[in-house]
């Protein structure tokens, strides 16, 4: 699951009735002046230095509470309790921080989030009311019918954080009926109602929120609101100690854990309730995940039903409590974990039984060393870890709990990318690919699967990719979608794309969450040129039979006459069930150019013989 739960807290005041009968204002600053006058006056609002509220909160079947404190303009604390999901965020005026559902402290270092934080501080100081502001651009684009009334449409954009805010202000009473905040990665729509006076200023006691593109709906109903109260500034400080819910079973400060690097993914065994099963290691998962069916077989109870963001699209997510579990040499206490349909995805694509994803909740406990060439993971105690190698240390600020690092392709396409151990390859995000016309590059199409379903990719060969001063030549990089339009984790506009294991397998990586740094060293396979598919044929097992999933146009598979949904019966006269399965088939399709295979397939109840001759596709 490539996106954590989004909690919307729109602490925007509402308006009192004011005397204006028609929408005859053309100056946006006059609309805002009347807006704040209706609230109780700008002077009164500037005097309101502190605020505390509590609210009932509901989100996609989950119910609970939200409590918020603030000393304006830049100190705040918010506690969200949905029973199966708890989160606390805070800001002491110097440092913004978050404690997630499993108690892990994260200090905000993402430059985009810090830019939004600074703009929020300036909004709290009412700097958007200054026509000469070099931060805000305020516009009035007309009148629209919103929430049953005509509203002035006031835009408050800030180039420094790439956020567009639109406020819909009633033309009669100047109540704020709705706000829309558009970021490169998401939108938040808030409808305000039930306006009440507190200490001479009005506030909206009900907010109905929709988060797009995931379509998550939330409702917040205020039960207590007080202003101008004394709050100890120490209340806004991050916790002095981080959570520690694991133990190295040998009493040391590290554990070496053998793993399997299979078809561009890293797998390791995890034991829950004395049952060992295969899990995938994924730094691109903002929360760890378990398969629903497997969780039920363990006797775990599901709670809630929300929308999360997967690689291909949105995905239905529930929550459950994972009992104490272990990997080789490390024991964990129970944790909150997300639950999605997972096993069937890996079984269809690789014949592997994969029951879970170890994401941020797991990885953030350690400094993790990933040695691809030698199939070895090493987990270090972050309090005792000191790097002593000769690799490159990269700043890797976490965005929504996921590492971001700087990388450059062909000396041209540069910026910050997500470091995603759950991604098989490198992928440009759709907005970046569209802005740079990458779909026009020569290449081939293919399909992939992730949480959220099937997604089409356009693959092209590039000259170089540079990471941490190291250069890998002739990388294969895809763009999601064929026209630059795609939902899910590849639709974000703040990053260039995802870096995946076709790049990382050349290196040894160290993932240091506490320092928000990544170390890259040359691995034993740094100089290795790994073979790519030479067929254009993608096979899968949607049920029991091996079938054709996709045929890339202009490839040997198309030349041979394959069609989607063909059922593969034999290869070179040998029954497909006598082979090792989908993994062996993919290895066969990477053999040397000129290699020939004769497939017997069934199509529309008839048997056909197709001759496939491999060749280089790039």
Folded structure, characterized:
By secondary structure, this protein is mainly beta. The protein is built from ten helices and 46 strands. The protein has a 13-stranded antiparallel sheet with strand order 6-5-4-3-2-1-13-12-11-10-9-8-7, covered by helices on one side. Mean pLDDT is 91; it is low at 1-22.
Computed CA radius of gyration, to the nearest angstrom: 27 Å
User: What is the fold-level CATH name, i.e. the topology of the largest domain?
Assistant: outer membrane lipoprotein receptor (LolB), chain A
Low-confidence stretches: 1-22
For the termini, the CA-CA separation is 32 Å
Query: Treating each run of at least 4 consecutive H or I residues as one helix, how many helices?
Result: 10
Helix percent band: 10-25%
| CATH class term of the largest domain | Mainly Beta
User: What strand line-up does the widest sheet have?
Assistant: 6-5-4-3-2-1-13-12-11-10-9-8-7
CATH superfamily of the largest domain: Lipoprotein localisation LolA/LolB/LppX
Mean pLDDT: 91
CATH architectural arrangement of the largest domain: Clam
Characterize the biggest β-sheet.
13 strands, antiparallel
Number of domains: 4
Shape: globular
Pairing-aware structural class of the strands and helices? Answer: mainly beta
Strand content: over 45%
**Strand count:** 46
Could you give a quick summary of the protein structure above?
The chain is mostly beta strands.
Task: List strands and helices in order, with pairings.
Elements: H1 28-39, H2 42-47, E1 50-59, E2 62-71, E3 75-81, E4 86-92, E5 96-99, E6 105-107, H3 111-124, E7 136-146, E8 149-158, E9 163-170, E10 176-182, E11 187-198, E12 201-212, E13 216-227, E14 246-248, E15 254-258, E16 260-262, E17 265-272, E18 275-281, E19 289-291, H4 292-297, E20 303-309, E21 314-322, E22 325-327, E23 330-332, E24 335-340, H5 343-350, E25 354-358, H6 360-363, E26 367-371, E27 376-380, E28 392-395, E29 398-399, E30 402-409, E31 413-419, E32 426-428, H7 430-435, E33 444-450, E34 453-461, E35 464-467, E36 470-473, E37 476-480, E38 497-499, H8 501-504, E39 507-512, E40 517-522, E41 537-540, E42 547-551, H9 556-560, E43 567-571, E44 574-575, H10 582-588, E45 596-603, E46 606-613
Parallel strand pairs: 18-25, 19-24, 31-38, 32-37
Antiparallel strand pairs: 1-2, 1-13, 2-3, 3-4, 4-5, 5-6, 7-8, 8-9, 9-10, 10-11, 11-12, 12-13, 14-23, 15-27, 16-17, 17-18, 17-22, 19-25, 20-21, 21-24, 22-23, 26-27, 26-39, 28-40, 29-30, 30-31, 30-35, 32-38, 33-34, 34-37, 35-36, 39-40, 41-42, 43-44, 43-45, 45-46
């Amino acid at each position: 699951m490539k996106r954590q739960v989004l909690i919307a807290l729109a602490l925007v005041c509402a308006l009192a009735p004011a005397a204006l009968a028609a929408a005859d204002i053309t100056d946006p600053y006059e609309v805002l002046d009347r807006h704040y006058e209706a609230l109780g006056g700008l002077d009164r609002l500037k005097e309101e230095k502190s605020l505390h509220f509590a609210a009932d909160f509901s989100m996609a079947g989950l119910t609970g509470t939200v409590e918020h404190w603030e000393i304006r303009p830049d100190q705040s604390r918010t506690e969200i309790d949905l029973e199966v999901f708890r989160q606390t965020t805070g800001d002491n005026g110097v440092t913004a921080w978050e404690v997630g559902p499993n108690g892990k402290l994260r200090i905000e270092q993402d430059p985009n989030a810090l830019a939004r934080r600074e703009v929020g501080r300036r909004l709290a100081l009412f700097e958007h009311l200054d026509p000469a502001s070099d931060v805000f651009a305020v516009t009035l684009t007309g009148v629209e019918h919103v929430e049953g009334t005509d509203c002035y449409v006031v835009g408050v954009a800030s180039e420094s954080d790439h956020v567009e805010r639109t406020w819909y202000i009633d033309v009669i009473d100047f109540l704020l009926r709705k706000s829309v905040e558009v970021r490169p990665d998401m939108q938040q729509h808030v409808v305000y109602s039930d306006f009440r006076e507190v200490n001479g200023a009005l506030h909206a006691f009900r907010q109905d929120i929709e988060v797009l593109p995931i379509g998550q709906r939330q409702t917040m109903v205020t039960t207590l609101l007080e202003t101008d109260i004394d709050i100890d500034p120490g209340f806004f400080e991050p916790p002095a100690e981080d959570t520690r819910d694991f133990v190295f079973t040998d009493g040391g400060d590290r554990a070496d854990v053998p793993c399997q690097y299979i078809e561009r993914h890293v797998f390791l065994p995890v034991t829950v309730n004395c049952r060992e099963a295969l899990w995938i290691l994924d730094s691109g998962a903002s929360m760890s995940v378990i398969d629903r069916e497997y969780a039920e077989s363990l006797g775990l109870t599901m709670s809630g039903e929300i929308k999360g963001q997967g690689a291909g699209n949105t995905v239905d997510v529930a929550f459950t409590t994972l009992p104490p579990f272990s990997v080789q040499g490390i024991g964990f206490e129970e944790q909150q974990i997300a639950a999605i349909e997972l096993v069937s995805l890996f079984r269809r694509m690789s014949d592997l039984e994969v029951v879970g994803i170890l994401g941020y909740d797991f990885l953030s406990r350690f400094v993790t060393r990933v040695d691809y060439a030698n199939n070895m993971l090493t987990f270090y105690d972050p309090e005792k870890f000191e790097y002593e190698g000769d690799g490159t240390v990269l700043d890797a600020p976490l965005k929504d709990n996921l590492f971001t690092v700087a990388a450059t392709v062909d000396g041209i396409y540069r910026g910050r990318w997500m470091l995603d151990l759950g991604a098989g390859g490198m992928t440009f995000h759709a907005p970046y690919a569209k802005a740079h016309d990458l779909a026009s590059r020569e290449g081939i199409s293919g399909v992939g699967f992730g949480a959220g379903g099937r997604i089409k990719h356009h693959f092209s060969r590039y000259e170089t990719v540079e990471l941490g001063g190291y250069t890998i030549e002739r990388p294969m990089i895809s763009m999601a979608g064929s026209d630059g339009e795609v939902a899910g984790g590849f639709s974000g506009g703040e990053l260039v794309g995802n870096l995946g294991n076709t790049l990382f397998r050349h290196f040894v990586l160290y993932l240091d969450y506490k320092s928000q740094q990544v170390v890259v060293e040359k691995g034993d396979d740094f100089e290795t040129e790994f073979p790519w598919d030479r067929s254009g044929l993608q096979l899968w097992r949607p049920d029991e039979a091996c079938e054709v999933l996709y045929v890339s146009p202009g490839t040997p598979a198309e030349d041979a006459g394959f069609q989607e949904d063909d059922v593969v019966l034999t290869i070179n006269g040998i029954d497909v069930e006598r082979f090792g399965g989908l993994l062996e088939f993919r290895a066969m399709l990477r053999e040397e150019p000129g290699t020939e295979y004769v497939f017997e397939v069934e199509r529309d109840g008839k048997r056909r013989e197709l001759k496939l001759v491999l060749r280089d596709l790039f």
